[in-house]
């Protein structure tokens, strides 16, 4: 796959994943939809691992790495599936755009990385201002939606902790092995969560979008998107890859509007805009500051 094609694939997959999560819960319980997605992706991943002869280890540091990744897969994605039944699907993409900032803050404490420059803290404040605008939106501020907001915030926190701790564990696993191991461990947890929260055997309604959304997310969201992302990460600079988190929220919001009749209130657009502006400053503020230093003497 060419790098431009892989980049476009990641943008499309990340932009469509939130609406896929929302649609997969149309006739299936969210935890069942998430579990089926992980089951299909894990099964296909295990086949790929065997075909490509990638070693899978289930002990020591490898198992620890799977377990930390599980915090993101079961914790973050499970909450995201539940939240998608309460909030506009595009907000999932907007909230997860906060994860690079939160990961950077956590990395200072957990990985002893250097202190962030002032402009990055300013970017974080912009993002917090965006969240405050969202929480003050009269259209969004219902009891169900507040619960969904809280779920998404916890999901982003778990996702960020997971990413930092996987890096700290440094098991040096092949990306596909890491994913397959973590997906496999998540299956009994999703099954238990579904049984406790619902436990009703569903009838797959192929006339509804749910089974198709599950298949799409398993094949594209969990496999093709994953492979494309790591392909892009190997060939492009981190700042170029970071642009994806700026592009996808806008697409995700409008896809929810077009495909799922979700409301795009002025406060929703303003709050999301502030969060994306904060992301832009976070990723590219240092570049702009460097340009000013070069231009200043002239």
From TrEMBL:
One of its GO terms (cellular component) is membrane. SUPFAM superfamilies: Multidrug resistance efflux transporter EmrE. Keywords: Membrane, Transmembrane, Transmembrane helix. It is a multi-pass membrane protein. InterPro entries: AA-Vitamin_Transporters, EamA_dom, EmrE-like. The chain crosses the membrane at residues 34-54, 66-84, 90-111, 118-135, 141-164, 176-197, 212-233, 240-259, 271-288. Belongs to the EamA transporter family. This is EamA-like transporter family protein.
């Amino acid at each position: 796959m060419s790098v431009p094609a892989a980049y476009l694939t990641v943008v499309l997959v990340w932009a469509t994943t939130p609406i896929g999560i929302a649609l997969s819960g149309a006739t299936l319980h969210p935890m069942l939809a998430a579990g089926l997605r992980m089951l299909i992706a894990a099964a296909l991943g295990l086949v790929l691992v065997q075909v490509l002869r990638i070693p899978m280890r289930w002990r020591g540091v490898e198992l620890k790495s799977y377990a930390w990744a599980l915090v993101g897969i079961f914790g973050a994605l499970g909450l995201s599936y539940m939240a998608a039944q309460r909030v506009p699907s595009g907000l999932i993409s907007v909230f997860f755009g906060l994860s690079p900032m939160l990961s950077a803050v956590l990395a200072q404490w957990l990985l002893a990385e250097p202190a962030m420059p002032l402009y990055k803290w300013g970017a974080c404040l912009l993002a917090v201002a965006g969240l405050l605008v969202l929480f003050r939106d009269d259209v969004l501020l219902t009891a169900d939606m507040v619960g969904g907001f809280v779920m998404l915030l916890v999901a982003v926190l778990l996702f960020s902790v997971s990413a930092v701790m996987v890096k700290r564990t440094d098991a040096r696993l092949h990306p596909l092995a890491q994913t397959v191991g973590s997906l496999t461990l998540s299956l009994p947890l999703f099954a238990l969560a579904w049984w406790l929260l619902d436990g009703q055997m569903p009838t797959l309604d192929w006339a509804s979008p749910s089974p198709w959304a599950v298949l799409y997310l398993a094949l594209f969201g969990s496999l093709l998107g994953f492979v494309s992302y790591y392909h892009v990460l190997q060939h492009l600079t981190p700042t170029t890859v970071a642009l994806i988190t700026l592009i996808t929220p806008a697409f995700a919001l409008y896809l929810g509007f077009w495909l799922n009749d979700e409301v795009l209130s002025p406060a929703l657009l303003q709050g999301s805009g502030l969060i994306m502006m904060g992301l832009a400053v976070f990723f590219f503020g240092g570049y702009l500051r460097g340009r000013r230093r070069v231009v200043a003497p002239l």
